[in-house]
């Protein structure tokens, strides 16, 4: 045995400190006096080491490589001093039950593996079948994505107009053009990915005006990119309309084999002819086209559930129907380091130490100026849901001593105006709460006006969406994609404030949502078997997991689940 090995064994052996321990396996005993001496010695050493830990941290750094097991004890003790009463972070599942894969550069995208430390455990774990399909999709993205030989050939065919027969390398492509606000674009990305998964296509996302996509999100797929290359050969593809010869409404009854691509317009104002794509059997028509260009500003996933062709596959992917965006967003949408830094700094400064965190997302569609009736509605909703404590009207008693530990609640408010935040914060500053709870109110930004595809504006918006997802309870505004993304990303079932009419606060002010899923706005809800757009499928043959939205019962649908509906 070498001297190094001998020295290591000696340091790891408690007898090097001249302590003889009783071993339950060897049956060795110590006398009562020896045991008492041992306990006194151990207490003295423990106290001494704790003092050393607290007063001389540089010594641990210098000696850390030479103390062996003693160093492990010191480190664990030091860690325990700072985390006593907290959850053991080492037990967090950073791969989210197999949803994510290891191997990404953690420094290049910290949020991918770090976000689990700021969230509760996943309430809807991914199904084994979904995990299997995700790994298959990742392989497809790597084999056919930008930079590969199959992609080069496909791009050349698209540019030249060469007819596609069977020589497609087994690679089909879905190009997403998402637009409007950031919430709309995130919903479009997640549901376009689901459509790509269902139809066996590579998802490529248009970078947007100003090339903002790389500033906002990390690459979701290992070993490849989801960003549409800047040299994409189809000219003016962002300017396509439903009048284009390649539009689905114009080609679904004819031959598509001679077309370079098919254009799908699935935004909130799509025509009935375009919406029939929701009833399309991809295996009969669109599979013959290598390139599909999809334009959307909304969450199309619920409408895919109405197509009998996809229902069995969707059931295997998502046994719990209220988990689609929750799971897909946790897989797909990881903010870049700049944005993740904004999220974590704000959270640690203002939200982390509160006993409870409440998110309030405000979206006003009647203009940018603040309104008293909106403030009244917020306060009425939070009172109705017992989300915020009432305040003492007048003549409050003496404040409690600072040693008394009062329950604390941190309120995160997001919106274009700071007026609502200022009024609620002032209310809790000027008056005590009736139950003694301490309420702090915080708002990261107030941009005053919404901008689209503006780098700094979108970065702040994404940081606030993620902050909303880290709260415990949440209030959102009707028709707001920003709010629905925030609550769905966090697995939160929101209180939805109804849209005011005639500048008057509605009564009731809000309702508890049936699920955490976002709403899909726009277009008729017709039966795919008859394809009769004049008959609302939800009125005559309701599906147990597809319902009309709480805040838009006439032209919005959302996914829910019987289990969660009973709980809510």
What does this structure look like?
By secondary structure, the chain is α/β, with parallel strands linked by helices. 38% of the residues lie in helices and 12% in strands. The protein has helices at 3-12, 32-55, 57-63, 69-83, 110-114, 128-144, 149-160, 182-199, 213-216, 248-251, 272-275, 301-304, 308-317, 324-332, 337-351, 372-384, 419-430, 455-469, 481-489, 537-540, 562-567, and strands at residues 172-178, 201-205, 261-265, 291-296, 356-361, 408-414, 438-442, 473-477, 495-497, 510-512, 520-521, 546-549, 552-559. The strands form 3 sheets. The chain has a 6-stranded mixed sheet with strand order 7-6-5-8-9-10, with helices on both faces. A 4-stranded parallel sheet has the order 2-1-4-3. A 3-stranded antiparallel sheet has the order 11-13-12. Strand 1, helix 8 and strand 2 form a beta-alpha-beta unit. Residues 1-87 have low confidence and may be disordered.
Quick recap:
This protein is an alpha/beta fold and 568 residues long.
Q: Evaluate the radius of gyration.
A: 29 Å
> Main β-sheet: number of strands, strand sense, barrel status?
6 strands, mixed
Looking at the chains present, what oligomeric state does this protein adopt? single chain
Q: How big a fraction of the residues is strand? A: 5-15%
Summed up, the helix count is 21
Strand order of the biggest β-sheet: 7-6-5-8-9-10
- Taken from the alpha-carbon principal axes, the silhouette is globular
Average of the residue pLDDT scores: 82
Helix % is 25-40%
